[in-house]
Specification:
The complex is a heterotrimer of chains A (513), B (398) and C (441). Chain A is α/β, with parallel strands linked by helices. Chain A contains 13 helices and 11 strands. Chain C is 35% helix and 15% strand. In chain C, the strands form 4 sheets. In chain C, strands 2-8-7-6-5-3-4 form a 7-stranded mixed sheet, sandwiched between helices. The chains are: A alpha/beta (513), B alpha/beta (398), C alpha/beta (441). Chains in contact: A-B, A-C, B-C. β3 of chain A pairs parallel with β18 of chain B, so a sheet runs across the interface.
């Protein structure tokens, strides 16, 4: 019996131009609020041997106030939180420029899982497979960069930059040139170059962009001298512009007796096109979680790789993997700077990066680069058609662009951050820029090879829509978001020592007691 | 927190008049008359209203205190808000006889508003927790003057950009931002910002010349919530204090340091433990203040060839390091010092130049050309850049 | 063929996009790269396995050559530990939403902020401290940063470091604290605990690790805290959080900064790829100002009853001395933080106490079982999870054990072997080790 009245007709109407997205909103309590005494999520085996009585000086007096929950409820809580998160697998993740958000093939996670139960201090004979992967990945990255040796030990890009600066320091010290106490970098190189150099004790000279958006080479000429330890430079810089005079930069620093160190965080558009060593660089680093596809994991674990010339190889962090007589062995370079992290490296990501390259080969990597660059220029073409959006310094870009909403902001009072938050209401991200904002009202887009033309069109349509909203109803955009897990957050308390709550216990103490 | 902080508002209703008329400024009754004659419509009230609207949207219960009519009250009403109104003491003399014009929002504009009116309003509102003022650099100077009168009683202020010239650091980037910053303001959390202004007579002739007039306390604005990428460096840009620490760490015994005007150079004095002046040129050596606020002739006598370092900060948004508010450091002083310049600026300030060079206008074009080239600019502790310096005459000749 | 990972490599769409841009070929986009820098040949890389099944076969061939600790009886520890990983930990950290996300705002990535806030909050309970960072790379980095924080905080540049730490960690500390911080070692006494004879006002911190590299639980923490504080220095304690269900948290005996690695909390050994570091302090503003790491906190939203999150004390620049020892924050190990949070929520207070008691008891049982055939070092000390034995030849013993399917321990030198026992080692496993050791000697 069907008495219900029809309220909709077939066929289903076409989709509206923009996706009607809503992020999951579970309104989930803080985990401590889910606790009930006596419950537990896992059982632990009893000692099976005589208990050890601890003296009061080392015995915990009160049990920690951790939540007490059944297993399903722990799982459910975290799965709800996971749904309130947007990974690359779910969104068109072209807006986190400089981060090279690309597809991390699922099959590679399976390979990563295969090393879960390997202990890093197992005898070499029992880990020949994983050592071979380290060795082979090192050889492939050496070919991609033109460098002689590569360390896969650093835990991230910044850690790799730090390892490079430590090698630079050791190199000069070994030559009796420890007086070299300055590192030169550029405004649009990743700020970790300056930060790591300072941590390592260097004075930092940052070259500002000239009117063309390129680092001022005359300034480098004035800066380079007997105190120069190294030039640490990203190319293409975070603007997406490739510095065509990079060779001259390297030569100037070499003439002054310094080393040239290439931050290849932005390498995705130049794989197989140009190589660090061929431009004369002595050191370089890659972020395996960017260019080589290992997942970003909410901010790590990541992995970095340091490539060096023959001359710098003795200073590499140890151990490295050597191959001799059919067997892979761990070796410590002669003048090693020592450890930059525990053991050999972030192995699951080493395995993933290796598998990714093995799925592509030399031709495939070049196709990655060319497609990333094509995607970027196509998206730029679409973005620049949005009234109020611009890209300073002309149209030459490699794999990403730092755009500006300056015109739109001046017209509407809506800032780039606010446009980004409103864009999230349509299921996408974007990021502005490092500080200070050299490009006003910035946003940085990097559409890697993973995205389709349809993806790029959808992304551009979303920004165009938000820009028009900013014109018609700026207050509406400023009060965004509307379709997210939570509503607009009042961040003011986070800077007030009397109010801030960096843990639940601090929150309870300051606000609930 | 105890109750809502009181937010004051002062509008300079004639600010921005000249801009619309292409006059590059609205200071002085003559300029205002000229602007009105050219059909300029005052926008300051409207921009102030925009700030108030943003403030009320974020903080509906905000307590607003202002002065009557176009100098504040009208803007609050235009924004749909309510406010307490304080009547400043009557002016000692009548306003100059300018024609009255219709303001925006239907309010009557007293076109004869003078600098004195602004000052009186600021003094009348001295009891607020934060004072918003709408205007340009000229207005900021008037506010600064009034705050000086108030001394320790002076409230922090925040500029709503509404003038033609908005180079001072005490302005928010837009009216709405001013409102939002005011909404988030917490008494006690303030920083220091410079008030600079151009010499409008010069400006109208095409010679840009910012001058530092002083500093005011402004709300400490929290960095915008975005841009906090996990993958980015968590080492935010260096502060004026860091720049000062670097300069002090570079000071050598037996060398005279000539510190030009500015908040950055004054921070050097503070770091060094000597009371240097904000607006004057000071000389320090071996940790002692040799002379404060020195006139040109005295400075010339103090300079010792080859044993003097001239420390300058960048004044205003155009990149001037010489010839704007530091004319005491004259060509003959610079010649006598025979030393390279040490320039101080945060990266933020340099970034705002958008690739344009620093400028020297010492009054001697040959010397300016000789100083041209690349100079070291201290941007933080153990941080610097090498930046292009040009003779102002060449830059403006193209 | 269009590669499965590169949709726009398809020639038709490629041509369409080039036409839209008005470019003849992608070569135009590379106009800024001078000819002299162009690679004029294809990259010389192995032929690819484009079909996923071929790649699987290749990878399985390589990975199949490893014999993991799951296919042997392993007593390897020394910084990487075989604790039991509950299935829910793996389930949560393999969720694609967490695994593939990066750095969204606290709106569309609310889940990440809350999960990490909960992780630091649970660590705070375990440590009895109010401020805990979003994880840094690993325990080595956590110790290095904690010591740099102490130096910045005190304005001093010398640290006294326990010699009872691993050689690798010491190597990292030496490199990371160079060149401006001087590192002095406090020797290890006969009882296996660190000996600090004195201190002066030039030190920024004492660094104590417990359990230390020999598995010895340091018992003189309160004394060292008093000594450090008497000289205006801080006590920095490296502690493994899995021990803190039974062992006193460093804060309880006066530590100012606690730090360490969280690999033991629900993270597999991963051939050394499962590390993440924590740093914790009290809610003391000047010390909080010295964190280079991100700190997440609760903030209200427009809607009542809704938790928002954001960065606590984001702008920590205006505080003195920060630039003097600047560090960086970047992509580190967030997912392991989320995982450790899941672990702590599953374990709860009882689970943490029980796992600690089991490890203490089985460690002691193993020491007693081996004492019959070898010399167990520091027998009088309290040991947690590890202990050292003296043998005629480390290499010979371990080689012989390996032949019997046992990874017997980590050689510290030619005659010293470090043995690790966790809740995963049954009494029978330990008996098997003891019997095998006796047999081989």
């Amino acid at each position: 019996m069907n008495t219900a009245e029809s309220f909709a007709k077939l066929p289903v109407a076409p989709k509206p131009p923009l996706r009607r997205f809503h992020q999951a909103r579970w309104d989930e309590p803080i985990i401590f609020e889910l606790s009930a005494p006596g419950r537990r999520g896992v059982a632990v085996p009893g000692p099976g041997a005589a208990p050890v009585e601890l003296p009061a000086s080392v015995r915990r007096a009160e049990p920690p106030k951790l939540p007490e929950m059944a297993q399903l409820h722990v799982l459910r809580h975290y799965l709800r939180l996971s749904q309130e998160n947007l990974g690359v697998d779910l969104n068109i993740d072209v807006g986190q420029g400089t981060c090279t958000m690309k597809y991390s093939p699922k099959v590679n996670d399976r390979f990563a899982g295969a090393v879960a139960e390997l202990h890093p201090l197992q005898h070499e004979d029992t880990v020949q497979g994983v050592l071979e992967i380290y060795w082979r990945l090192e050889r492939m990255l050496a070919e991609i960069s033109g460098m002689a040796r590569v360390s896969l030990q650093p835990g991230s890009g910044s850690a790799a930059i730090y390892a490079n600066i430590a090698m630079i320091r050791a190199y000069h010290a070994a030559r009796g040139e420890g007086h070299r106490d300055q590192v030169i970098t550029t405004m649009f190189s990743h700020p970790s170059n300056a930060a790591c150099a300072k941590t390592a004790g260097y004075e930092v000279i940052t070259l500002m962009p000239d009117a063309e958006g390129l680092p001022d080479i005359e300034a480098l000429r004035a800066a380079a001298g007997p105190r120069t330890a190294a030039l640490m430079i990203t190319n293409p810089e975070d603007t997406g512009i490739f510095n065509p005079r990079i060779q001259e930069f390297v030569d100037l620093v070499h003439e002054a007796g310094g080393l040239a160190c290439y931050d290849q965080a932005n390498a995705n558009g130049i794989l197989g096109i140009t190589r660090a060593r061929d431009a004369g660089f002595d050191l370089c680093h890659f972020n395996l979680h960017k260019t080589f596809s290992t997942p970003h994991a909410c901010g790590g674990p990541a992995a970095g790789a340091c490539g060096v010339s023959e001359e710098l190889a003795p200073f590499l962090p140890g151990p490295v993997v050597g191959f001799d007589d059919g067997t892979y062995r761990l070796e410590t370079p002669a003048a090693s700077i020592g450890k930059v992290r525990p053991f050999l490296g972030v192995t699951p990501n080493i395995v993933r990066a290796y598998a990714w390259i093995m799925a592509l080969g030399g031709e495939g990597l070049r196709q990655v680069a060319e497609t990333a660059v094509l995607n970027n220029n196509y998206l730029m073409h679409r973005i620049l058609a949005i009234p109020g959006a611009s890209a300073p310094w002309g149209r030459r870009r490699v794999e990403q662009v730092r755009y500006s909403w300056q015109e739109l902001t001046e017209e509407t009072g809506v800032h780039s951050e606010e446009i980004g938050v409103r864009a999230a209401d349509f299921g996408v991200h974007y990021w502005t820029s490092h500080h200070p904002y050299v490009v006003p009202e910035p946003f940085t887009l990097e559409p890697t090879e993973s995205y389709s033309k349809e993806d790029l069109d959808e992304y551009a349509d979303i920004l165009a829509h938000v820009a028009s909203e900013a014109r018609s109803d700026p207050a509406f955009v400023k009060e965004a978001p509307y379709n997210q897990s939570v509503h607009k957050i009042d961040m003011t308390s986070l800077d007030d020592p009397g109010e801030w709550a960096p843990t639940w216990r601090a929150y309870v103490r300051k606000h609930l007691s | 927190m105890t109750g809502e902080p009181a937010i004051g508002l002062v509008v300079n209703p004639v600010a921005g008049l000249g801009g619309a008329a292409g006059l590059k400024g609205s200071d002085g009754a003559a300029a205002q008359r000229a602007a009105l004659a050219l059909g300029a419509v005052p926008r300051a009230g409207e921009r102030a209203a925009r700030a108030v609207r943003a403030l009320l949207s974020r903080r509906p219960g905000a307590r607003l205190v202002t002065v009557p009519g176009p100098m504040g009250e009208d803007a609050v009403h235009a924004a749909g808000g309510t406010c307490a109104v304080i009547h400043p003491p009557a002016p000692p003399r009548p306003a100059p006889g300018l024609a009255e014009a219709d303001g925006p929002m239907g309010a009557r504009l007293v076109a004869g508003t003078t600098a004195q009116d602004t000052r009186r309003a600021v003094v009348a509102l001295a009891g607020v927790d934060l004072l918003l003022f709408a205007g340009g650099d000229g207005t900021a100077r008037d506010v600064l003057d009034a705050l000086r009168e108030l001394g320790g009683q002076a409230p922090p202020v925040l500029g709503v950009p509404a003038g033609v010239k908005v180079y001072s650091g005490c302005f928010a980037v837009s009216p709405a931002t001013a409102g939002l910053v005011a909404a988030a303001f917490r008494p006690g959390r303030t920083g220091e910002a410079e008030v600079v202004d151009l010499d409008e007579d010069g400006y109208r002739r095409g010679l840009v010349g910012p001058r530092l007039y002083g500093t005011v306390r402004v709300p400490e604005a929290r960095a915008a919530f975005s841009g906090r990428k996990t993958g980015s460096s968590g080492t935010p840009p260096a502060t004026v204090e860091a720049v000062a620490r670097e300069v002090v760490s570079r000071m050598r015994p037996g060398v005279r340091y000539v510190l030009g005007p500015g908040a950055t150079t004054r921070a050097v004095g503070r770091e060094h433990g000597v009371a240097t002046t904000l607006l004057g040129v000071d000389v320090v050596e071996d940790g002692r203040l040799i002379a404060a606020d020195v006139p040109e002739a005295a400075l010339f006598d103090l300079v010792r060839p080859g044993k003097t370092v001239v420390v300058l900060s960048v004044i205003g948004g155009q990149g001037f390091v010489l010839g704007r508010g530091n004319q005491q450091i004259s060509p003959r002083v610079l010649r006598a010092a025979r030393a390279p310049l040490l320039v101080l600026a945060t990266q933020r300030k340099l970034a705002a130049l958008r690739g344009r060079p620093l400028l020297a206008d010492s009054g001697d074009e040959d010397l300016d050309r000789r100083l041209s080239g690349h100079v070291q600019v201290i941007t933080g502790h153990r941080e610097s850049t090498i930046y292009r310096l040009r003779a102002a005459s060449e830059e403006y000749d193209g | 063929m269009t590669h499965p990972y590169i949709p726009n490599a398809e020639p038709g769409v490629r041509a369409e996009m080039l036409a839209a841009i008005g470019a003849a070929s992608v070569e135009e986009f590379y106009a800024d790269i001078p000819a002299g820098l162009r690679l004029d040949r294809p990259l010389d890389l192995p032929a690819p396995f484009v079909a996923e099944q071929d790649l699987v076969r290749h990878m399985e061939g390589l990975l199949g050559r490893d014999t993991g600790t799951d296919r042997a009886l392993s007593f390897l520890g020394h910084g990487c530990y075989p604790h039991y990983v509950p299935a829910v930990c793996d389930e949560v950290n393999s969720r694609s939403e967490f695994l593939t996300a990066y750095a969204g705002e606290p709106y569309e990535d609310h889940g990440r902020f809350q999960a990490l806030f909960e992780y630091v909050s649970m660590m705070g309970e375990l440590l009895d401290m109010d401020v805990v960072n979003v994880p840094t790379y690993d325990g080595f980095q956590a110790a290095g940063t904690a010591l740099r924080m102490a130096c910045r905080h005190t304005g001093r540049s010398r640290v006294l470091v326990s010699a009872a730490i691993s050689a690798d960690k010491l190597s990292k500390l030496r490199d990371y604290l160079a060149p401006d911080i001087e590192l002095t070692l406090a020797p290890v006494g006969a009882d296996g605990e660190v000996v600090v004879r004195g201190l002066d006002d030039s030190y920024a911190a004492i660094y104590l690790e417990t359990p230390n590299v020999y598995g010895v639980v340091e018992t003189r923490g309160r004394e060292l805290a008093g000594l450090a504080h008497a000289h205006g220095a801080l006590l920095v304690v490296g502690a493994d959080p899995i021990s803190l269900g039974v062992l006193a948290p460093p804060a309880s005996y006066g530590a100012d900064i606690a730090c360490g690695d969280i690999q033991s909390l629900g993270i597999h050994q991963n051939y050394g790829g499962g590390h993440a570091g924590y740093i914790a302090t009290h809610d003391h503003e000047p010390l909080v100002a010295e964190f280079p790491s991100r700190l997440f906190g609760i903030a209200p939203t427009k809607v009542s009853g809704e938790y928002g999150f954001g960065d606590v004390f984001y702008d920590r620049t205006s505080f003195a001395h920060r630039e003097d020892g600047k560090e960086w924050v970047g992509t580190a190990a967030a997912l392991w933080g989320i995982t450790a949070g899941v672990y702590l929520a599953l374990m709860g207070p009882q689970g943490m106490r029980e796992v600690g008691e089991t490890i203490l008891a089985r460690t002691r049982y193993a020491m007693d079982a081996l004492a019959g055939s070898v010399t167990v070092l520091h027998p009088g000390a309290i040991h947690f999870r590890e202990f050292a034995i003296e043998v005629p030849s480390s290499e010979a013993l371990l080689g012989a054990l390996r032949e019997r399917g046992i990874y017997g321990g980590v050689p510290l030198d030619g005659h010293t072997v470090l043995v690790c026992v966790t809740e995963r080692h049954s009494i029978a496993d330990i008996d098997r080790l003891a019997a095998a050791v006796q047999e081989t000697l």
